[in-house]
């Protein structure tokens, strides 16, 4: 089965509905980088039909973009390249900054690290409460006019914030958290995307590995791995999510699929979505084709909801990941 594609307004090449997420490749908050495996993963992604790759300057403080720039040398045209803007860092501490000067400096730094003259999708990583959206939007609109950027996206924005931003610059896509266990966007963000013709790049479709089917209660997270502080991975709540995983596996088995394929398919069947699969080893994405070419029925969706409702009595979202405003 070949990949499924979706059009993002302003970007000539249709994007694959499974994208490679490169946060973990940067190493920071994921227990350290492994550049050789990261490069092989990018090769593998292209081999299995993925053409959209998502990164950000903050992933490894430039490292993820550097790996990507090096790996794509000579074949940049094959991919739809998405990166972000609007976070800064000092001594390992990340904070929001979407002022005009930061955007201009960051864009040139990203282009250099990515070894390209343009970014296909340029996304504001988090809304900056200390900068008017007009300032950010106008600076970004200028980057589109200059040809350095093809299309704009907004990540982690509410509908009200998107409305305000879109008064000053057109937006083609959004990037919220979305997976079987994190469904907040169904209340307002997803309907907003549908009615405003925005493509949804769903981040964390495997819920940071919980939906890989490989996670066990005795798994030990080491180093700076963010799951040491992720509330979903702390007992007694962790057990609830692992119970839900066992239930979801039965639905996957009915389709002859892995849990991982089910988790990705579920995201793809919920709207104009792209699943941002986070991988850093080539073998992790060998199963991409299993998520394409089938769909979940209404009955499957209802059965899934029943499993989640029963197993997860104390749900929690991904809010712990939000970076602070600048001091
Ligand atoms: P994810 O894709 O839900 O999960 C990644 C996790 O899944 C990793 O722990 C990885 O394991 C595991 N995994 C992947 N393939 C696997 C396989 N075949 N078998 C077993 N385990 C597998 O989470 P994510 O990386 O947090 O999110 C994906 C992407 O979304 C990021 O890379 C980034 O591009 C984007 N993102 C954006 C934001 C934002 O604010 N805009 C926030 C978060 C993420 P290992 O740990 O063993 O590698």
Automatic annotation (TrEMBL):
GO terms for cellular component: cytosol. This is Aryl-alcohol dehydrogenase-like predicted oxidoreductase. SUPFAM superfamilies: NAD(P)-linked oxidoreductase. InterPro entries: AKR (IPR020471), AKR_Detox_Biosynth (IPR050523), Aldo/ket_reductase_CS (IPR018170), NAD(P)_OxRdtase_dom_sf (IPR036812), NADP_OxRdtase_dom (IPR023210). Residues 17-308 form the NADP-dependent oxidoreductase domain. One of its GO terms (molecular function) is oxidoreductase activity. Keywords: Oxidoreductase. The keyword Oxidoreductase applies. It comes from Acetobacter lovaniensis.
